Amino acid sequence: MTRSTTRTHCPYCSLNCGFDLRTEDGVIVDLDRWKQSPLTQGGLCVKGTTAHEQVDHEDRLRSPLVKRNGRLVEATWDEALDAAAAGFRTIAEAHGPDANALLSGGSLTNEKVYLLGKFARLAMRTRHVDYNGRFCMAAAGKANMMAFGADRMMTPLDELRNAEVVVVIGAHISAAFPVALPKYLNLVRRTGGTVIVVDPRAGRFVKPEDLHIALEPGTDAIFFNGLLREIARRGYIDRNFVNTRTTGFEEALASALPFDPETVQRIADVPIAALEQAAELIGGTTRCMFLHGRGPEQQLSGTSNVLSIINVGLACGHVGRPGAGVNMLTGQRNGQGGREWGQRCDQLPAGRSIRDPKHRRTVAARWGVEPHDIPDAGDSYVEILDAAGRREVRGLLSICTNMAVSAPDVRRVDEQLASLDHLVVVDPFLSESARHADVVLPGSTFAEEAGTITTLEGRVIRIDQVVAPVAGVDDMGIIRALAARLGAADHFAHESPAAVFDEMRAVSAGGPIDYSGITLDRLRRDDGVFWPCPSLDHPGTPQLYRERFAHADGLARFHPIVPTEPLDSVDDGYPIVLTTGRLLAQFLSANQTGRIERLQKVAPGPYVELHPETARAYSISKDDRVRITSRQATVDVPWRSNRGLRYDTLFMPYHWPECNVLVSADLDPLSKIPGFKYTAVRIESSRAEIDLRERRDTGSSAAIVSESKK
Ligand code: SF4
């Protein structure tokens, strides 16, 4: 028997907890904690301890599938790859290359992200390529680019040890960042510091001694404008920092002046005393760390909301010094690298701008093409699906993203996918989106491939292959084989992920996201390297912006914020706000985690959380189901009580389609992120017989009942 142990990282969230996988004769038999793993030091949540169970799961796709006579049937790799490529070729010849599109995921290795961006542009020759980070990190990334000139967490999380005040904004730490962060928050509390939580929903991580500001959903920018005004009134503006390191402060402050404490209390439902206490705590220390998650970001004003937080941090000078920073908490495993390496519609690899002629020239030279061979910026994720609905996009390659569950207004997504002429889905398991596929190609799991990942901190880490892909071909092999069939083999001749990484380092040299000094050997030896790292002897850059920001003039930008009403606002017909988010025991569309027995036991299906007083007010009894109606649809789900919610707010986990069927497909105009965190709904007890128009085959007791009329 051959035994081996391989060091790797959990495939789910951006903390990337490390562990060792043990194999016997090429089969994973167990997982051991890696006690010194970067940041999380052996910590694992329930998803991590079961992550390896997906690799040899009985549901794995082990053979390609091709649709024949309306049914997906097994095919050889050659048959399936030929069919996949032929469909894209036929569409491009008849309607032009932009009639094809590519959508991908935020869990892919940097190498696959890079290859997919290159594949879309040089093999499919389409400008329409985007990824599901559009649903999570788009607003934070856009705001960081606008304010600081770069899109990365500015402070390593270990700096939380030095923080006196931590402000957690719309980040459900217990479910989404369950390892490391709770320990840091406890350390802050134990050493006399304060945790401020700004969120309509309290999680288990919120302690009685914390200052919990349960603001009304959709009022983040109103609260932070009010906070900026109050901090200025108390004389806590760091004038030296503002004058020497930033521009635009006076305009930003002027935009905040209308938001006096009474106005904030009236609109955002934040007590005056709470606003004043927050201003005193944040303004009265030099060591304040802001951590924002999807709460303020997944709104139609997501970018403005983040900018309003950044305005407060900059005004107090909480940047680039010990225990301080304004930091976004990236969600998916490679949400950070996913937005660096060129799978976004408006960006080339290494953060190079698709619109900047100099950047286009650099990338074109490395790719061996002319700048005009690289298509211009294309549509974002939801816009691509919309274009499919209009029959402007007719062919779609979907890799490791499951829009039939994860995109907003999923009923419409079903129709959009059905209207495609050609859909190719690459995934380790048959997903809901694959129901519409013409070709399904078995994708790789985290243990079946090598590469690199960039964690939420901006730390590049190494992934080693543990076992061979169960279907015989890994994702990189699929990309190469499709490229060859589309006449672009020369651009994808890399023999290994290491060769791809070398090309990426070269493309990044001297650019905004410089990996050129990072080698795979260093990644193993140093347990990761933070970018920018421009030379082999450079130590990497854990802390950004100590001396200057990433804008050409080195200054950070304030932005005036004028809060807007949500488009899908509450009214008499839809008086309650539905907000959505993640559960600890599931991940994204549950296409992987939903098949792991231990996780399914903990989180078996959709439900809604209500405050018990809300349930009482609507005469909803313990065993009732709740009928929820938005302007998009109606669903019928079981409910659970949560005293940590506001009376006027519901929470639904987004791992099942019953959630996103309710959410509108409207987008933040700046970042194109959907407004998952704010949907106006009404509720009633659902005791009546219902017309089950659709039911998922997970055996869940929930149902999508009907489409509501706008
Ligand atoms: Fe760690 Fe996140 Fe994996 Fe849980 S899901 S083990 S917190 S990386």
Describe this structure in words.
The protein is an alpha/beta fold. It folds into 4 domains: 3-54, Single Sheet (N-terminal domain of TfIIb); 65-136 and 334-530, Rossmann fold (3-Layer(aba) Sandwich), CATH 3.40.50; 138-328, 3-Layer(aba) Sandwich (Dimethylsulfoxide Reductase, domain 2), CATH 3.40.228.10; 576-707, Barwin-like endoglucanases, CATH 2.40.40. Helices cover 30% and strands 19% of the residues. The strands form 7 sheets. The chain has a 7-stranded mixed sheet, sandwiched between helices. Strands 23, 24, 25, 26, 27, 28 and 29 form a 7-stranded mixed sheet that branches. The chain is globular and about 70 Å long. The N and C termini lie far apart (64 Å). The model is unreliable at 688-701 (pLDDT under 50). Iron/sulfur cluster binds at residues 10, 12-13, 15-17, 40, 44-45, 47-48, 178-179.
What order do the helices and strands come in, and which of them pair?
Blueprint: E1 3-9, E2 18-24, E3 27-33, H1 46-50, E4 65-68, E5 71-74, H2 77-95, E6 100-104, H3 110-124, E7 129-131, H4 138-148, E8 165-169, H5 173-176, H6 181-190, E9 194-198, E10 211-213, H7 220-233, H8 239-245, E11 246-247, H9 249-256, H10 261-268, H11 272-283, E12 288-292, H12 294-297, H13 302-315, E13 325-328, H14 335-338, E14 347-348, E15 352-353, H15 357-367, H16 381-389, E16 395-399, H17 403-406, H18 410-418, E17 422-427, E18 439-442, E19 451-454, E20 459-463, H19 475-485, H20 497-508, H21 520-525, E21 529-530, E22 556-557, E23 576-581, H22 597-602, E24 608-610, H23 612-617, E25 625-630, E26 634-641, E27 649-653, H24 657-660, E28 679-686, E29 703-706
Bound molecules: iron/sulfur cluster.
Residues 10, 12-13, 15-17, 40, 44-45, 47-48, 178-179 line the site of iron/sulfur cluster.
